[in-house]
Fold RGS domain-containing protein.
Amino acid sequence: MTSLSQPTSTLASVNSTGINNTVTSSPKIRLSKLEDKIYFGINIFCNLYFIIPLIWICFHRNSFIVKQRSFILTLIGGISSFLSAKTNLASQNYNVSCAFTYYSRVVFMFIAQVCFVSRAFRLILLYRLNDYKLNQLNHKEFIQKTQNGDINESNIYYKSFKKTSDKKFVYLIMPFLIIFDFIMGFFLKDTLIQKIFVIGNYNLNDRILYHSQFSSSSKIPEHFKGINESMTNLFKVPRYTSYFFIILYLIIVLIFIFTKIKDDQKFGIKFDCFSNAIISLITQLFHEFLCTNKAKDMIAKQINPIYTINNVTKNGIIFFVFVDFFIQLTSVIIPLIKCIQEKQINENHNNVHINNLQYFYSILQSPAFMDELKSIALQEFVAEDILFWENYCTLQKITNRSIKRYEERYNNNNNNRNPFNMYNNNNYIHNYYSINDYNLNLENNHIDNPYYPILPDLLPYYNVFYHIFIDPNVHVPQNIYQVLHNNPVVGVFDGAKNEVVESMYMSIFPRLLQNSRKQIQNLN
């Protein structure tokens, strides 16, 4: 079998003038072959395929479909994927330096992979967090553990997960990783250039294909030994990062296979992360195979299909372009289509009575939809909202029953009707209620007077509710802490409740309408 004749002749002529400071004089754009014309068309399509959706999705950044995937990670990952695909495609039609492809791998592809891996682990951690909350803090657990004094707020263990994934990682850890990777790559390249390397622009495909056939045992032509050694050393940083991401992809795939991460949305975030992990893992593994001595020997001997695949994919570079296109499809284009569809559906049903906030209150008070709401809240990472509502209703139920009992018991005692003086028996409520009494019956769960003082024995419930569900760093319409400790009234959490319900109305209610519109219309 013969070796790669065209790359050999090209490089022989290129290096006949010397290894250093070599610049070719071929046309600026290669369009002579059909393959060149196809890649030129893909280059143009790449601009439209990436830029338009990335700009468009910015207008939907407040949509919960985009927030679920983290807008900032999606945007940074999308831009990096575009630059990675563009630089890899450019070498198919233009003469570029080896550093052009090198920095594509070291910087742009690295950033895109970091963003994708972060989004996948963010999904896994937030899903586990919300699942833990739903199992840990149902309304019975809230009552029982408050009475026993041993309630553990689930946010104590996982409170920083969402903040870390959405802010700290993006603004602190991720820049550090990128800068470290760039510095490592820059100093390695600078060191190699000072020793021996080809400087200038040339047909990089010929050089890469020619380099891909030399294994450690191959007899390398004398004129190419320096370049071959430099290229091998130069791409060590991308190869080491590739090993690192292969391990992470494998972990992500195994987690999705062996854990129950639900997503009832077709082409939802689970499909996004799971499919990208599989595609990236397969392409990375195959590219690493092309770099092995066995594959290089097969390429040198022109053994198919490895020889043909290596030529067609330019030693695996086109695989990376395919991955960038696929990530753009699942992470940006599909969510964008979902946002547009959701907006159209909302506009078509804008004046329908089931779409208003008051009707959503009636849905929240219907036990028939509670399980589905919890399932949606779990997938949207807003389990704390549905838990707030459920435990708020439980707190109101306890308060309502206690007030009724108090009114019945002390109705005839006008001189001693201050609730703060009447409940001296700390075991009163504990003896009056049993756990079986806390099956919610929301029809009788309304307190007419929100300024009614909180009965003393109910204060532990209100204090626990405050520490679990009220974030002191978030502004609320009223100063809950001061009201609770200076002038405690039963309506202390009403303002926060309104905010939470409005949040659920914007986040989980559209998904509920999408899944169960007919059932909701039949709700009396």
The chain is about 70% helix and 0% strand. Confidence is low (pLDDT under 50) at residues 1-25, 154-160, 194-198, 420-444.
